[in-house]
Specification:
The chain is of the alpha+beta class. It has 2 helices and 6 strands.
Length: 105
């Protein structure tokens, strides 16, 4: 299992996850692997990268995977890019790491 801790950055109000999004995928999956060079966790969504649909799908998928309310997840940067920084509000880095590792990346 890869060390994904470098994709997580703890901040005052939660933890930021660096993710690499594949929009228009055949299936939704998070976490979907780890890119060691970009230090980013993969995220696949079926929604197209059109009119913010993929971003909404990313937020929903991450919230469902981490068993958190959608309101706890927000895109901090990369709204128009496949590389995004997503804030998970109110969750410490170590707790988030445990939750992600429980999904057997």
């Amino acid at each position: 299992m890869p060390d994904i801790s470098e994709a997580l950055l703890e901040e005052r109000n939660g933890t930021i996850i660096s993710i690499d999004v594949t929009a228009g995928s055949k299936a939704e999956l998070f976490p979907a692997g780890y890119n060691e060079w970009r230090k980013a966790i993969g995220c696949r969504v079926t929604a197209p990268a059109l009119e913010g649909r993929a971003n909404k799908a990313v937020i929903t998928l991450i919230a469902e995977t981490l068993d958190l309310p959608v309101s706890a997840i927000s895109i901090q940067s990369g709204a128009t890019s496949s590389q995004k920084r997503v804030l998970v509000a109110g969750v410490a880095k170590n707790d988030l790491l445990l939750r992600l590792n429980s999904h057997n990346m």
